[in-house]
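Sequence in, structure out. Go.
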Amino acid sequence: ACAGILPEPDALHAITVGALGTLTMVMMGRATLQRAIREPRFSAGANWGVALVSLAAVLRIAAAVPALREAALIGAGLSWTLAFVLFGIFLAGALAQPKGRGLPAAGPEP
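Output:
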């Protein structure tokens, strides 16, 4: 058990779902925005995607409780899937726009 609270496989899965899932999502978004030469601002849908990854991690922790296991695992899987669908829409939208949209024009200072 992980510090006597969670079984080790559940704790490891919760960490990878939450920490690595969030890190992967945010880095994909930043890299996409930098590639598209845009301000590093996520849309509301992308922010919801990041929040849903966190919810998936919390539900994965709740799945350690035997009475909640099935519902929590289903909820975690749905949250994870919806998170990446929303984020995929954000990435597609960011890549479909012309480069540099929304940034000030580059040039010498007056």
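Check: The chain has a mean pLDDT of 82. Residues 47 and 87 are 8 Å apart (CA to CA).
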